[in-house]
Amino acid sequence: MTVRYPRPLRPGDRVGVTSPSSGVAREHRGRLDVAVRDLQARGYEVVVGRCMDGSTHISAPAAERAAELTAMLTDPAVRAVVPPWGGETAVDLLPLLDFEAIGRAEPTWVVGWSDISTIITPLTLLTGVATVHGNNLMDTPYRTPEGLLSWLDVVTDPQQGQPLVQTPPGRHRATGWDDYALYPEVRDLTLDRAGAWTRLDGTGDVDVEGRLIGGCIETLVNLAGTRLLDTRSFADGDDLLVYVEACEDNAYTICRNLHGMRLAGFFDRAAAVLVGRTKAPDGRTLTQAEAVLDALGPLGVPIVADVECGHVPPYLALVNGARGRVVHTAGRGEIVQTLD
Question: Which residues are CB-neighbours of 263 under 8 A, at least 6 positions away?
């Protein structure tokens, strides 16, 4: 399956906002308004859908969420779809999404992470349309740390086919979070701890290439072994750079889940595995890093951890389907993506 890229987003284009999983509670609407205004200030028309209720863990019944998302992805006037954030049960949309119709439509950028991995990773694998795993709409007002790219940097890039280079900033957020109810206009990320990428499987430099694909372990594991997470025919058989990240499950659960995903074939074509930095708890006798190595060490490929693609700010923007190159040495970390 050949990867297809939506055209770059341009001023005047329409951006759709919908919540395929969790909506936005009343106390967080101020942050949503700030994010929408920021997009409008850059010249985009923003259309906020009806599936936005944040009073429970879902924004609307599954059929309504699926219909609204499908409508946006098949509307040629909508050039990007950006949920406010993730949630818990986007998996209930998958039987209701018309992937064939979405695949026939002109490609649209879809952006998100966490529970949105449940949608964007199968979307790329089933239709060949590239998607963006990166900061979501509620994160958009934050200033992007030096060395990283935001989702807007990626989808507005006018020179598709030219490398998108990202390097880790060397700092991350270790404690707390920003309260959007009290500070809806917050724009500066608190990065209060130093930290670098680490190689889990051994020592030595890493320099490896492949097509990027991946997402949140806790959500993707539920799709393992189904056509929704089948990487066998993806990207015309290229090697893969598989990225995974743990949100909150303890190390024992992550270990079991990664073993299951490996047995189901998700990592079969991996030339390397990238593991997102996490605050998920260790077990009494097993750390998160040990869990990854226990499950994925048998692959015999480089495993690079503490990458900025997890639930710990800041965030790399990774394009599912992009050609990628990962370099990790004692003095350098770099991810290069090419949209071709």
Answer: none
Side chain identity at residue 13, one-letter code = D
| pLDDT per residue as tens digits for the range 55-110 | 999 999 999 999 999 999 999 999 999 999 999 999 999 999 999 999 999 999 99
With contact defined as beta carbons under 8 Å apart, do 28 and 54 qualify? yes
Distance CA 214, CA 319 (A): 10
Tell me if the bond preceding 107 is cis, omega within 30° of 0: no
- Listed residue (41, 222, 38) closest to 135, CA to CA: 38
Tokens of 79: 């050039």
Residue with tokens 């879809």: 110
Q: What is the C-alpha separation between 84 and 167, in angstroms, rounded?
A: 26
pTM score, two decimals?
A: 0.96
Torsion of CA 140, 93, 242, 107, to 10 degrees: -70
φ, ψ of residue 80 in degrees (nearest 5): -155, 145
d(CA 205, CA 329): 5
pLDDT in tens, 141-152: 999 999 999 999
